[in-house]
UniProtKB/TrEMBL annotation:
Coiled coil: none annotated. Transmembrane segments: none annotated. It comes from Azospirillum thermophilum. The lineage of its organism: Bacteria, Pseudomonadati, Pseudomonadota, Alphaproteobacteria, Rhodospirillales. Residues 110-193 form the Aminopeptidase N-like N-terminal domain. This is Aminopeptidase N. It catalyses: Release of an N-terminal amino acid, Xaa-|-Yaa- from a peptide, amide or arylamide. Xaa is preferably Ala, but may be most amino acids including Pro (slow action). When a terminal hydrophobic residue is followed by a prolyl residue, the two may be released as an intact Xaa-Pro dipeptide. Residues 451-555 form the Peptidase M1 alanyl aminopeptidase Ig-like fold domain. It holds the Pfam family DUF3458. Residues 559-882 form the Peptidase M1 alanyl aminopeptidase C-terminal domain. InterPro entries: Aminopeptidase_N-like_N (IPR045357), Aminopeptidase_N-like_N_sf (IPR042097), PepN_Ig-like_sf (IPR038438), Peptidase_M1 (IPR001930), Peptidase_M1_dom (IPR014782), Peptidase_M1_pepN (IPR012779), Peptidase_M1_pepN_C (IPR024601), Peptidase_M1_pepN_C_sf (IPR037144). Aminopeptidase N is involved in the degradation of intracellular peptides generated by protein breakdown during normal growth as well as in response to nutrient starvation. Its EC number is 3.4.11.2. Keywords: Aminopeptidase, Hydrolase, Metal-binding, Metalloprotease, Plasmid, Protease, Zinc.
Amino acid sequence: MDKGTPKAIRLQDYRPPAHLIDTVDLQFELGEEVTTVRSTLGIRRNPDRPDAAGLPLTLDGQRLDLVSVALDGTPVAPDRYTVTADHLTVDQVPECFSLETVVRIKPQENTALEGLYKSSGNFCTQCEAEGFRKITYFIDRPDVMARYATTITAEKARYPVLLSNGNLVASGEHEDGRHWARWEDPFPKPCYLFALVAGNLRHAEDHFRTFSGREVTLRIYVEPGNEDKVDHAMRSLKKSMRWDEEVYGLEYDLDIFNIVAVGDFNMGAMENKSLNVFNTKYILAKPETATDNDFLGIESVVAHEYFHNWTGNRVTCRDWFQLSLKEGLTVFRDQEFSSDMNSRAVKRIADVQGLRTVQFQEDAGAMAHPVRPDSYVEINNFYTPTVYNKGAEVIRMIHTLLGPEGFRKGMDLYFQRHDGQAVTCDDFVAAMADASGVDLSQFQLWYRQAGTPDLSVATAYDEAARTYRLTIRQTVPPTPGQPDKQPMHIPVVVGLLGPDGADLPLRLTGEAAPAGTSRLLHVRKAEEVFEFVDVPARPVPSILRGFSAPVKVKADVSDADLTFLMANDSDAFNRWEAGQILGGRILLGLVADQQAGRLLDLPQSYVDAVGAVLRDADADPAFAAQALVLPTEAYLGTQMDVVDPEAIHTVREFARKTLAARLRPDWLATYRRHAGNQSFSVEADAIGRRALKNLCLAYLMALEDEEALSLCLGQYHGATAMTDVIASLQFLSNSNAPQRDEVLAGFYERWKGEPLVVDKWFGVQAMSYRPDALERVTELLKHPAFEIRNPNKVYALIGGFANGNPVRFHDATGSGYRFLADQVLRLDPMNPQVAARMMGPFSRLRRYDAARQALMKAQLERIVATPGLSPDVFEVASKSLEAAG
Ligand code: B3K
Ligand code: ZN
């Protein structure tokens, strides 16, 4: 680091701000060389900080060229203020005053995509978390909430559209070809929700009538040429607005809601008040260019950002440690919305798979942190699966503990108490507890303790006494900075299946009568025993139904019982889960065989169990498509003490080929049944059929025989929906088919005008498990379509290889590690956020063998020794090295 080691910020050091800002008047002069920002702030001393009298005013500001400072209309003498790289400090300020600053910035040189920057020639902003300080001097923290008025002036020909938060209150033209627009946002907001867009954009318009009868204008702005790809996003927006009214009684609060899609964006999207800015990936879609997953992703991200209007904007975070207050809650809300719009079981399975592969890995690595972290160096490093997805699981557990009505009461109370405020996770939990009367005191450990709890379940049936006993033990593993953990309050939903496969009525010792067939058990102590009475025969236990807590379970359930659950469990999630546990057990057994040099053999009983699911697939194709996927390589890795990427890959491919060969007629028949020409729709059923069909093709292509190849090529050339095209392209890209190179080249020629489709092309090649993958990725870095400044390209090619191709990335020579470190160092000076996000695999080095650890460590040492490193990359690299010991 050039400025010394960056300092950690700690939750325990939180203090309310010394000054508050009530009003903000911004005037932007957007220019090609220089943009001028004039800001007038209405400031007063914070009454909650009586000690602040006499303290100077400290404003945050970075990379700003300060032109002037005036206090209550009078220029401030130079000896009364100080400017450093990060702050503007003004001495001897009165209790209440206005401060006017003028700064110059250069958005066209901003490659970090934080603050005000340009994308495809258009101006746009990204302020969360701390980007506003790169636009103007301000108290850049979320507990400073102000009313904003924004005037934008720019050349009309280049920037016909001028947008900001709130309502357009005036606009006009100058004689020199410039025009202006003034926007006012009536709702006080933290500066991270500020947004500005100026550019040459087209829009689609629609309307929504809220339940109180207000007519809201909805607009989605895109670059010219993309107008034909916004229908799905618009439909998703209207559905989200209706859903939030119906489920939570929450209504939209302004007369206009704008979305702008930009091609260069660090994340998925941003919930700026009434002016959401989106990555094009989460707006643009038509069947020819977008896959089913893209369509589902758009629906959920549009909903997520819309839902933030209440959970995030109306009630916001006191400080960035509370990020999960808005993110965990809003992810939970978008998950529930998607479940209501599509298949609930399939959505739950997909979410749990994501949690287990990505979040569980994070929890086991150097960057492990609680849902509410207690310290950070760079807040941008904490927009993590833990804060978002484990955070959503924490909310889901509260929902389980309170029940749907109790949860709704809690939400109502939360808004009643905190509308317009910046609050903490404790405030949220208090509203939930107070509204429902449920004691959540021990539960709050979920916000404070990092690491994935381990549950072990032992079962015992007493035939004579007709009792069935579950003994559940919990341990929470140590994580960096948290060596010792306390037992958590874990909601474990269970059912018991009788010999006929039906759920048994459940009565616990001491209860007068059975209560339901799915029971919530509260595990609070390190060990708990639950005894069910009146159990007529040895039951098969269905444990953690619906994945009722984000934990790892080890239960003494036999393979035969798992096969029984796969066929009979009334809980769809656990029907899928049983298959995953069984598949995982078998594959991990084979990994041990492979490591010991023993011959691999897949048990016929397992082939039969998979065959049974396959033959029943038409009953619920979407579910079957999930149930027939073998546990992923990443997931298998999380189940091992020392991850062996090569053995895992070899074994999983062996199992895929064996299942493909032994069940070939069934894969083929199922493929054929679903491959017929149906008209395209994104209804859950149609998506499910395509998923099942493509899964069958994946198995058939594992064999790479003539017939499979011809089916695959036939689908590639004949399909119109991108889902089908890209699936066949992926199988071909993994194959040794002679047509492979020609097909890949042809795909690029066909789609080179569509950047989002080109990203898929990069991704497919980056994730190819052919031995030449890294060579190909290295070549593609030089491809004319690859653009290192565009995050989507980086995520597709570099991220696709580092995260989506474990066997090639973890190549024993260390070539993958060297490659990744090179790219991180190349990215860091341009875009630290993206560079740091690429470091994930290094933060998990402890999970690998000594040789790989040493190779990764060497790359990390090279990274930290690089002068001028960003705090973003420095934090991940140094924490990873620390954990490596
Ligand atoms: N709140 C934004 C994420 C901002 C990330 C800043 N590094 C998107 C979202 O979660 O909705
Ligand atoms: Zn969010």
